[in-house]
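REQUEST FORM: STRUCTURE PREDICTION
Request ID: SP-0412
Submitted by: Lab K.M.
Chain count: 1
Length (residues): 158
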Amino acid sequence: MKKIIAEVTRDQVSTALTDGGKLVEILIDRAGSGSVAGNIYAGIVKAILPSQFAFVDIGLGRSAFLNLADSKEKNGARGLKQGAELLVQVLKDPSGAKGAYLTTELALTGRYAVVMANINGPAVGVSKKITSEAERGRLADIAAGRLPDGFLTNLAAV
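STATUS: Completed
RESULT:
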């Protein structure tokens, strides 16, 4: 039986995966480690510039940057207005005076699979580390069949 064990302290979050009582994997995230790349935030649009850029407050102290001109962002940003809430994922950490670079195409990545929630519907990608195309297709079908009904609707409600 697989089990996930987590310990949360002020300074770090430790997560362990066990299988049959044996440690399989351990992850330790220390506070202040710096990187927010990959994190998903519920943000509030603070400004939309005519040149198709939006500045989004995700709680990092300065507004993050969402390029609405990117083809993948255009459809998800239709009707986007100042004050709107939206889910975003950090693609690039803030640096210097620049805020984080965001996307509205969310991806939850694991070691061998990626679950992507985008405007075209949820999708599952299987790692190319699995070299057999048949096996990759089989695993993608299994994973896609396990996505809950209303997956995108549920994410929007977070």
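NOTES: The mean pLDDT is 79.
Reviewed by: T.R.
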